Amino acid sequence: MLDSGVLVLNRVFQPVHITSVRRAFSLLYQGVAKALDEELQLFDFASWSALSAAQHDAVQTVSRRIRVPRVVVLVAYEHLPRARVRFSRFNIYARDDSTCQYCGRRFPRSDLNLDHVVPRSRGGSTNWENVVCSCVPCNLRKGGQTPEEAGMRLLRHPARPRWTPVFRNAARRAFYREWMPFLSMAEAAYWNTELLD
Ligand SMILES: [Zn+2]
Predict the structure, then answer these.
(1) CA 135 to centroid of ligand 1, rounded, Å
(2) pTM beyond cutoff 0.70
(3) Which residues surround ligand 1, an ion (CB under 5 A)?
């Protein structure tokens, strides 16, 4: 329980990383972070430990049971981690949710290709902005053409995803529904994908 995951948000409620319950309590106790409940109310350590722990995960101290927070908010921190998401096949599939970006259908990863939106032969580069998931039939139909030439439309404009490597490393931990309001669709999709693997 003490090692299970707690989502850490910065001062403006953006996810920063996942920490352990042990560390989250330490942040709370030091006054560096506040706990957030389902109604998005913030609690300092004293007011949080006064809440009822019934029907919640809780830790037992000498004198009482204290409810485990699943989301904490750093009081003074407003930066996002600067680390970048690695540009890899795995992460491109995760960003695109294993969905062909031309026909919009989901496929097992083994049935997907990576497609250069602007073909390499036409000077297209290999980066987050020009590589998308594509199924084999769409890939063949597009061939060496741009989407416009092939009469195909992208589901959405490809971009570098905003989740961080901190999230990737934490992804094998359990996922808590209390985190959902703070994660983008891409992050949530990523999590599901990782768990299914
Ligand atoms: Zn397709």
Answers:
(1) 4
(2) no
(3) 100, 102-103, 135, 138
